[in-house]
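Structure representation.

___
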Amino acid sequence: MSDRLAELRRQRALVQQHLDWLDREIAATGPAPSPDNPPQLAPAVAPTPLPAVAPEAYAPDPTATQQEVKRGCLLWLVAGLLVLGAIFAAIYFYAYGDRPLLFMERE
């Protein structure tokens, strides 16, 4: 436990050195604001209110959503079948190209 305590104290000393350095840099940069003359802040501007929108405007259309999902699933199915067909064609041409299955010569 004493190793951990020593490490924590070392870290605290390093942080204190860093804070002292920050204080010196701030003092060197410019005069600190005095309590008699506080810094002037820009006046706060009220944000413009947003127009009120009914919650129904953001609600999804269930019929259109269902159609989009069906269309997407069918597109993925067709794409998957095309990829699978391309894989089978590549296997056939690279592995069985020397022994044609189709268009064989008849003896």
The mean pLDDT is 82. Residues 78 and 84 are 10 Å apart (CA to CA).
